[in-house]
Design brief:
Length: 491
């Protein structure tokens, strides 16, 4: 059997059922990996004692022939999900000592199905970032290195950077992430793993610290497409506590991985060929289309004419919702409290000390576009454009079943490389934001290595609530790519 930390989620599941390894042994190996790779700064809070306790309970269930779909499997949780009795910070100093008295719906589903919690993962503050450099708890480091001898420390992508780094570094079998504008898919591409943003409403948002409520969606990050399918089935489901949760049956996503995509139509949007796209991105995109054609799919060109408006639309809508959601952090009810001579001073001092620079920037942008005199000029116009962007996809899916695009416009960049240029940082989301605005499912799968030896991802976008087709096509692409490279820190 492979090293316990090098098993896939599906492989570990099967090994546990066959009694080839115990959950305690599996969990202990991952706890050791967590401790030995602390230099990546992937975790905000480690819970090794809780993990071993949960593993022992899982072993007892497995010995009785019982247990759920994830029984005994060690995973980790992005620190945006509230976990009862375990600190939840959202990567922010303003929630530095917040210990929720309740459990998020998604994590309660995972514990219901037998998963074991290794800890809480680092992230960009309030999920605002594309590089995991805005966390109050320090930068997360990508376990990959460029093959140029520079040994520069690289970003893992964001905002789910801790989730991506921990899965890529074989610290955890899988992890939860959230995706508002690409925060599962882009870090998955940067670290050579699989990440899927489900359709908006597929996974409950209850108990997930809010950034932009009409965009936020939880999803899994894992080493393989099969592992992502297994995780998604446990995470998904209707929740009456979330008014945006959709009441529909959760499919067996793993069963959808038939390997047969003959007759499917794969759309290539012409508007995604942006100026200055690196040749290696164009090359891997073409390679992905060739793989799917060879597997029996038909490649067709589609048009998404309002794509060029997606980023400016997103960076109006998301900050507007953030400014509203983050108004609750006032130093009165929970979290950080700074002193002040008046109520206004208490608010101002608490937010000045508790929020980081990027969060302040987005709150100010959001407050501005919602203010009197600017609401119609910015926010109303952005909402109209969002409708047009969603309509583009509806029209495109009349000609195809899934859409294939690059996930990110580059491989992972060095920590500090784009840190002083917010616009350059926002452009990391150019390929992921449109599907977020339309609420569509999107998945990133590793497709090869760039010229610098770093992972490149390809993105598949599907119709609403058609994650099964997205996963099926991704499984075929994964097999064709044969991506087996490992980060230097663990290879």
């Amino acid at each position: 059997m492979s090293k316990p930390t090098h098993l896939t989620l599906a492989g570990a599941r099967d090994a546990l059922k066959k009694r080839e390894i115990s959950s305690v042994e599996l969990t202990t190996a991952h706890v050791a990996a967590m401790e030995s790779l602390r230099g990546l700064n992937a975790f905000v809070t480690e819970t090794p004692d809780k993990a071993i306790e949960m593993a022992k309970a899982s072993d007892a269930k497995l010995a009785r022939g019982e247990g759920g779909p994830l029984e005994g499997l060690p995973i980790a949780i992005k620190d945006l999900f509230c976990t009862e009795g375990v600190r939840t910070t959202a990567g922010s100093a303003i929630l530095g000592n917040f210990v929720p008295p309740y459990e998020s719906t998604v994590t309660s589903h995972l514990w219901r199905d037998g998963a074991v919690m290794l800890g809480k993962l680092n992230m960009d503050e309030f999920a605002m970032g594309s590089a995991n450099i805005t966390s109050a708890y320090g930068n997360v480091e990508n376990p990959w290195r460029r093959q140029d001898g520079s040994n520069a420390k690289l970003v893992p992508g964001g905002s789910s950077g801790g989730s991506a780094a921990s899965v890529a570094a074989r610290i955890t079998l899988a992890a939860t992430g959230t995706d508002t504008g690409g925060s599962i898919r882009q870090p998955a591409a940067f670290t050579g793993i699989v990440g899927i943003k489900p359709t908006y409403g597929r996974c409950s948002r209850w108990g997930v610290v809010a950034f932009a409520s009409s965009l936020d969606q939880a999803g899994p990050m894992a080493r393989t497409v099969r592992d992502a399918a297994i995780m998604l089935r446990s995470m998904a489901g209707f929740d009456p506590k979330d008014s945006t949760s959709v009441d529909m049956a959760v499919p067996d996503f793993e069963a959808a991985l038939t390997g047969d995509i003959r007759g499917l139509k794969v759309g290539i949007p012409k508007e995604y060929r942006v100026d200055g796209m690196p040749a290696e991105i164009e090359r891997v995109w073409q390679q992905g289309a060739d793989w799917l054609r060879a597997a029996g799919a038909e490649i067709v060109e589609v048009s998404l004419p309002h794509t060029k408006y997606a980023l400016p639309t997103y960076y109006i809508v998301a900050p507007a919702e953030a400014s509203s959601n983050l108004a609750r952090y006032d130093g009165v009810r929970y979290g950080l409290r700074e002193t002040g001579g008046s109520l206004n001073e208490l608010y101002e001092n608490t937010r000045a000390a508790g929020f980081g620079r990027e969060v302040k920037r987005r709150v100010m942008i959001g407050t501005y576009v919602l203010s009197a005199g600017y609401y119609d000029a910015y926010y109303t116009k952005a909402q109209k454009l969002r409708t047009l962007i969603a309509r583009d996809f509806t029209e495109a899916y009349k000609q195809c079943d899934v859409i294939l695009t690059p996930t990110a416009p580059s491989t992972a960049f060095a920590i500090g490389e784009k840190q002083d240029d917010p616009i350059a940082m926002y452009l990391n989301d150019v390929f992921t934001v449109p599907a977020s605005l339309a609420g569509l499912p999107g998945l990133s799968v590793p497709a090869g290595l760039g010229d610098d030896g770093l992972p490149l991802g390809l993105q598949l976008l599907g119709r609403p609530f058609d994650e099964e087709t997205v996963l099926r096509v991704a499984g075929v692409m994964e097999r064709a790519a044969g991506f087996t490279a490992l980060p230097q820190s663990i290879s």
